[in-house]
Amino acid sequence: CNGKDAYYKILMGYCLEGEITEKQLEECYQKQDWKNYTIAVHGLKSAMRSIGALKISEIAKLLEMAGKNEDVDYILEHHNQLMVEYKYLFTKLQIHVFQDKPEEMQQTRTEKIRTEEKSLEKETKIIMCVCKRYDVENIKNEVYNNISVRESLSI
User: Fold this and answer.
1) How far is CA 75 from CA 11, 30, 89, in A?
2) Is pLDDT above 60 for 148?
3) Is the distance from CB of 86 to CB of 44 less than 8 angstroms?
4) pTM here?
């Protein structure tokens, strides 16, 4: 795998994660959850820098610093600029990376959904096992006694 192929795969990953990142940023912004917003823009800053999207990285850096300094006014004033730039880049990346390959994008998304479904299925089984094995009073006692349910199941 040469450098160009590796870079292409990285871009493909960003294309698939772009909607999730956008949604996460918007949710934190709307809820005014500045702690998680700061974490999200930190991740975006690093990700965008790694692919050479320096303008978005710089905007995210300034928003991250504003979050750390609790400068809500700065975040409120500059959040939309970040989102406009990010959405524009994300749209262009999708067009470029999946040009003439819409089936590849759908296939990759389908694989991602299957992975997420398997993870959800595993967690559901753990919860069901706990529910079958313990009654509510025992679960409360374990939580209050700082005993991990996972440890008691040897998971």
Assistant:
1) 27, 12, 20
2) no
3) yes
4) 0.61
Higher pLDDT, 152 or 28: 28
Residue owning tokens 């979050």: 67
Rg (C-alpha) for the chain, rounded Å, is: 21
pLDDT score recorded for residue 27: 94
AA identity, residue 117: E
51 closest CA partner among 106, 101, 100, 92: 92
- In this structure, the number of other CB atoms found within 10 A of the CB of residue 116 comes to 10
The neighbour count for residue 90, using CB atoms within 10 Å, is: 19
User: Residues of 40-60 as b/e, b for ≥16 C-beta within 10 angstroms?
Assistant: bbbebbebbeebebeebbebb
